[in-house]
UniProtKB/TrEMBL annotation:
Signal peptide: none
Residue ranges constituting the Helix-turn-helix domain according to the UniProt record: 15-62
Organism: Tsukamurella asaccharolytica
Domain of life from the UniProt record: Bacteria
Protein name: Helix-turn-helix domain-containing protein
MF annotations from Gene Ontology: DNA binding
């Protein structure tokens, strides 16, 4: 791949970095790392970093809703 080229993504799947997940969830990166290490948020290890499937983030958020009413 040349400079600036992006790897093709598998059939509509998208993996996010820890920083992207933290931004999406509006939490710190440390919170995301804690969720990954506790097994609450599934992730794959790529080298020394983690990638989280976008669907896993949405699934986690769906199951974490709390009805305060």
């Amino acid at each position: 791949m040349g400079a600036g080229a992006q790897a093709p993504q598998a059939a509509g799947s998208s993996f996010l970095t820890v920083a992207e997940v933290a931004t999406l969830m509006r939490v710190s990166k440390m919170t995301v790392y804690r969720l990954v290490h506790n097994g609450e948020l599934p992730a794959v290890r790529v080298g020394r970093s983690f990638r989280v499937h976008e669907k896993a983030v949405h699934d986690y958020l769906q199951t974490s809703f709390f009805d305060a009413g």
